[in-house]
TrEMBL record:
InterPro entries: MCLN_ECD (IPR049134), Mucolipin (IPR039031), PKD1_2_channel (IPR013122). This is Mucolipin 3a. It comes from the Eukaryota. It comes from Echeneis naucrates. The keyword Nucleotidyltransferase does not apply. It is a multi-pass membrane protein. GO terms for molecular function: NAADP-sensitive calcium-release channel activity. Gene3D superfamilies: 1.10.287.70. It catalyses: Ca(2+)(in) = Ca(2+)(out). Keywords: Cell membrane, Disulfide bond, Endosome, Ion channel, Ion transport, Membrane, Transmembrane, Transmembrane helix, Transport. GO terms for cellular component: endosome membrane; lysosomal membrane; plasma membrane. Residues 95-277 form the Mucolipin extracytosolic domain. The chain crosses the membrane at residues 290-310, 348-369, 381-399, 419-441, 487-508.
Amino acid sequence: MIFFFPPLHFSVMEDSQPLLRSEEPRTNGHYRWSTHTLDSKAVEDFRRRLKYFFMNPCEKYRARGRKPWKLMLQILKIAITTIQLVSFGLSNEMMVTFKDENLVTFRHLFLKGFKDHRQESYSLYTKADVYDHIHYIINTYINLQNLTVANLAYERVDGEYTPLSVCREFYRNSSIDPGTDTFDIDPHIDKDCISIHPMQSVDNCSLAAHFNFSLDFKSLLSVNIYLTLKTINLQTVRHHELPDCYDFHIMIMFDNRAHSGKIKVYVENDARIYECRDWNVEGASGKNDYLLLWFDSVVILACLTSLILCTRSVINGIQLQFEFNIFFHAYYNKIVPWSDRMEFVNGWYILIIVSDMLTIAGSALKIGIQTKFLTNYDVCSILLGTATMLVWVGVIRYLGFFKKYNILILTLRAALPNVIRFCCCAAMIYLGYCFCGWIVLGPYHDKFRTLDRVTECLFSLINGDDMYATFLNLRDKSYMVWLFSRLYLYSFISLFIYMVLSLFIALITDTYETIKHHQQDKVPVSQLQAFIAECRDQPESGRYQTDEELTSCCLSPRCCLP
């Protein structure tokens, strides 16, 4: 697109008189535009247009009387998205709590002698204990209705109960004799299962004889027991929500893959949530469900409107940036630096656009969950939670209209590039310590057992958390490991707490002092700001009550001549 300024009216000029405006030398590193050079109405209109573009909503209202619709819409969004998140959060909390409590119930029901306060994993050490626990699980499942206080029932498919399955995994062929230090093993894994129906009684003898189910612990890898139970989450009735029906697919695993004499026992629960087939709540009219659906629709509509308005503003800013670049090249024969060009792209609008997209997607998922077509609670909570966080972070933009609050925003924006570069350098040292700690200390310390645990442990140490416990747990290890752990921990803590963190804070402090100095001196810091600063018209002056298309830009000085 080509932009042209209106013809400039100026008298016949000598060849020696410059057509372009000149720029005086910098004063304290800042630009000042000379006053004796060429000026025109088109330049002043374009300068006024730029100043209007960078005004805050209140100043734009005083300048042209335009109501700040985006500002009012963002304030409305803060309220409705927060209410929506709180409503969904309470529902999600009930669902997660119900699933967790049922998992604890299953552990107490099916693991013999299970205690909540036990810190170590549930483990078995003798053959008799393994057989006894498998028999205990089967009998508990068969007599579940007479044992549990929960609303649990067996699953039925085509009128038949879904059986409990006991599966064993083992090496296909193996001959192991530790006494003679010999073994012959086929690494291929075989799996066979037996099925037991709820109404079938089983004891230890019939398990081994009738089902031909015996365990060769030398080749055994694991024993997995699969069962399915159904229940209804009735606690949502108190909150005027329809109860959901649940299918719990439970797996109890006896893990012998280490062949260390310790068989670890795990209980895993996979829940499937769906709408109950036939339901009736006395006195319920479904009005609350319709209100929630209507409210979610309002949220989607508000975010869609905000998305359109902010996208339009971003596009207008990009177009104005191109005009300013062409204008500067035509009038001053200069190339606008990227730092000035990026000022036209409002990062807050980008943040709002991302927030709106996440809110629309999360609200659509929430509607699907409320109508029982979807059960993606985790995905929905991530979308809505992130969107609400971005909405509240966007409030900082409006605090920036006040000078005392604006210094924080300017400091964050100015320090961000240096902070990213600094963090990249520090991350190299951090990752080196992570890999070293994982390899050397992992076998001896739970906090260094996996790479993700190492990163979490070292980050806690940087913040001064749990230092003594980390040192203490390595006290009784071998002397070589103990000595290395001391050198490792002391060097890491000294390097990151006393040097890296101090440099990080100094980096931000230096940026803060620089921004504060510029605000006190009230001098522009870029060519764009210096150009706009020459416009002395106040928002209330009435000079902005003009057509926005009065000013445009030309590709060469020739088109600006009459």
